[in-house]
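FORM 7B: Structural annotation worksheet

SECTION A. Query
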Amino acid sequence: MYKKWIVLLLLGVAGVMAWRYITHVDPDDQDYYSAILCGVVGKQNDNYAASMRNIIEGSNNEYALQRIRFNRIAAERAINAWETLPDAEKSTLAQDTNACQHALTALVVNP
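SECTION B. Predicted structure
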């Protein structure tokens, strides 16, 4: 009886640890995705995620041993932070990438 509870408890702990590992984004990586988004919003107004994916995965060299993979969670967090901004602020930040990066970094929270 106790073995079942111990096994269930261990499975639950392992599940929580796996979920935390999967959804965790390094703050430096999140800043990188915010910077990429700031470059993208100045050039277009739709489908930010696809443009970010093209930039990030397109920067890989053919001979690279470690290729940078697109982190969907980091991109979604940056896009969600951008979408929470008022339209007037978006138009201002789209012109100034440094201010955009600082604003998005302040808005994006890594749980």
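SECTION C. Observations
The CA atoms of residues 33 and 75 lie 6 Å apart. The radius of gyration is 18 Å.

SECTION D. Sign-off
Analyst initials: ____
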